[in-house]
């Protein structure tokens, strides 16, 4: 099973999505017997790569957020000690 095949949500895989959807339209019955399987495999690989890129970006963003939070806590604790 794959996620919804909306082009705006998967810009990295847009070309493969279009080919996959065209294959399904061109082969309405053969798709059930493996006609579009090669494209499905390519699509799955593309989704995995896309997810890895997003995961890495989210990890970098969380590291930045964690650093800002630690700096804020350090500043707040120093402010409390001064008072």
From TrEMBL:
<dbReference type="InterPro" id="IPR013892">
    <property type="entry name" value="Cyt_c_biogenesis_Cmc1-like"/>
</dbReference>
<feature type="coiled-coil region">
    <location>
        <begin position="55"/>
        <end position="82"/>
    </location>
</feature>
<comment type="similarity">
    <text>Belongs to the CMC family.</text>
</comment>
<dbReference type="Pfam" id="PF08583">
    <property type="entry name" value="Cmc1"/>
</dbReference>
<dbReference type="GO" id="GO:0005739">
    <property type="term" value="C:mitochondrion"/>
</dbReference>
<keyword id="KW-1015">Disulfide bond</keyword>
<keyword id="KW-0496">Mitochondrion</keyword>
<protein>
    <recommendedName>
        <fullName>COX assembly mitochondrial protein</fullName>
    </recommendedName>
</protein>
<keyword id="KW-0175">Coiled coil</keyword>
């Amino acid at each position: 099973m794959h996620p919804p095949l909306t082009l705006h949500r998967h810009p990295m895989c847009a070309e493969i999505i279009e080919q996959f959807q065209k294959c399904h339209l061109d082969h309405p019955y053969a798709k059930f017997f493996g006609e579009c399987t090669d494209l499905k495999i390519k699509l799955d690989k593309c989704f995995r790569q896309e997810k890895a890129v997003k995961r890495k970006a989210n990890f970098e963003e969380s590291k930045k957020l964690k650093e800002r939070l630690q700096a804020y806590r350090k500043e707040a604790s120093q402010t409390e000690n001064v008072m």
